[in-house]
Write a structure and sequence with these properties.
Blueprint: H1 39-53, H2 65-78, H3 80-112, H4 114-129, H5 136-143, H6 147-171, H7 175-183, H8 188-222, H9 231-240, H10 244-272
Helix pairs in contact: 2-10, 3-4, 3-6, 3-8, 3-9, 4-6, 5-6, 6-8, 8-10, 9-10
Length: 281
Amino acid sequence: MTTTEIPLATPRTDQPPPAPRRRRRRLGPGRPIRHGWAIGPLLLLLVWAVGSAAGWIDERNLSAPWDVVTTARELIEDGRLQENLWTSAGRALAGLGFGVAAGLVLAVIAGLSRLGEGVIDGPVQIKRSIPSLALIPLLILWFGIGETMKVVTITLGVLVPVYVHTHNGLRTIDSRYVELAETVRLGRVAFLRHVVLPGALPGFLLGMRFAVTNAWLALVVVEQVNATSGIGYMMELARTYGQTEVIIVGLVVYGLLGLVSDGLVRLVQRRALSWRRTLAD
């Protein structure tokens, strides 16, 4: 009896290669774009330039970008722009400093004490519903029309966002961290350092982004109230003489100051909160 030999199966060479694996699309906004913050302003500048060159924008209402650049160069050569800029920056920084300090202290007191929250939170929420600019007539009666009124107005505009976001950060600290601190018998100073400050930092930095914006918004208005120097005073004087390009220069300066200051806060935010993984990363 003979056995039948079964031939071994040989692989077929005419089969198509396996299809490449499709890369799964990443959900969310995607990877950060290098210098992505400049895309919006550059597009706005492009639309402005095209509209001016094509005659779609009346120069009596909005000067062309090249006219604004020429005017800015003249103001820099005269020294007027730098002088008014330093005055405006001093007012904004003074109000920002006082507002951040006051908002942070009030938030810590209200966030760590029920009695402090009962005393502080209500008045701050009332102030939150009243724009700081609506208080200008009353502040003029209290402090006059000098520098004190201007700095106080900016301070009130800065205080509220710092308080609200820092207080929220304190209240949303995970209670397990507090229980752990009690278990290891942390003192009050160590508790503030290792639990409270890290937990409130994200809220505080978010509040700072709103605070720097509010500082420049308040500055725009208060500098047009009996001021003798500053970017707002320069713009108000230009309005009197119909110098549209000078007004645009002032607006551009305000916009750049807000953009740069917000960028600095965001940079600090990324560095200080590098341990967090978010969609912005």
